[in-house]
Amino acid sequence: MKLTFLGTGTSQGIPVIGCDCEVCLSTDPQDKRLRTAAFVELRDTNIVIDVGPDFRQQMLTNNVREIEAVLLTHEHNDHIIGMDDVRPFNFRFRRDMPVYCSEQVQRSLKKRFSYAFDEDPYPGAPRFQLKTIKASEVFKIGEQEILPIQVMHASMPVLGFRFGKLTYLTDAKTISDLAYQQLAGTEVLILNALRKEEHHSHLSLDEALEVIARIQPKQAFLIHMSHTLGLAADINKSLPKGVSLAYDGLTIEI
């Protein structure tokens, strides 16, 4: 299995429009962050996790030519609003795109992309095949078993995904005891860390490091980072062994 970080930034991305902070002005490519998403290449299937406003750019930058399924973590705009750009995959392969998500996310999709669900849709509208998934209930895409793990984003439930030894969690603030049980044995953990200061709906850097210390993966990568976190080069020097900031375009193999 191979995972490519398509984006590692928070909802505004980095640089932030109109911002003159040192991170937004940085020339280090690792400080340039599109909205958080990932591309997972399995033995027989390509999957995208989240489809935000940068989806088209992410597909082109990484030369992604085929995906068989989309996984959605939750319904916030920076994770779903690029769904209209699934259309080229509809056109090229002449099939509806399987979209795995909770019923709550499905309701949001039907509201924001109502034209895609019309009985007689406009020719050229995106076409989705919605597949309901629930926390703690394993499902399969191709040969791969995937366990949805629920975390809380303030009061909003968010699904993370465990692919065998790898677990992907974004937009978490609180993690239940059940979720920690489901995370046990994770060897590669991908986890959000918004900034140094505490936030009401996202893990801070210190809180993320506490989660990592409890799970004890062999390797952890931090995602969904704000420009206020600091320069990647500086933050990486301060992190414990086995923990690093992910960056756009980074590919890991498991």
Topology diagram in text:
Blueprint lengths: L1 E6 L29 E5 L4 E4 L5 H7 L7 E3 L5 H4 L6 H7 L3 E5 L1 H10 L15 E5 L6 E3 L2 E10 L2 E8 L2 E3 L8 H7 L4 E5 L12 H11 L3 E5 L8 H7 L4 E3 L5 E3 L1
Parallel strand pairs: 3-4, 4-5, 5-6, 10-11, 11-12, 12-13
Antiparallel strand pairs: 1-2, 1-14, 2-3, 7-8, 8-9, 9-10
Structural account:
- The longest helix has 11 residues, at 205-215.
- The protein has one domain: Ribonuclease Z/Hydroxyacylglutathione hydrolase-like (Metallo-beta-lactamase, Chain A), CATH 3.60.15.
- Strand 9 (156-163) and strand 10 (166-168) form a beta hairpin.
- Helices cover 21% and strands 27% of the residues.
- It is α/β, with parallel strands linked by helices.
Q: Which labels suit this protein?
A:
seven-stranded mixed sheet, 254 residues, alpha/beta, 14 strands, Metallo-beta-lactamase, Chain A, globular, 27% strand
Return the average pLDDT rounded to an integer.
97
Biggest β-sheet: count, sense, barrel? 7 strands, mixed
CATH class membership: Alpha Beta
Task: Find the CATH superfamily.
Answer: Ribonuclease Z/Hydroxyacylglutathione hydrolase-like
Annotated CATH topology:
Metallo-beta-lactamase, Chain A
Number of strands: 14
- Fraction of residues in helix: 10-25%
Distance between the termini: 5 Å
From the spread of the alpha carbons, the general shape counts as globular
SS content category: alpha/beta
Question: Which range does the strand content fall in?
Answer: 25-35%
Number of separate helices:
7
Order of helices and strands: EEEHEHHEHEEEEEHEHEHEE
Strand line-up across the major sheet: 6-5-4-3-2-1-14
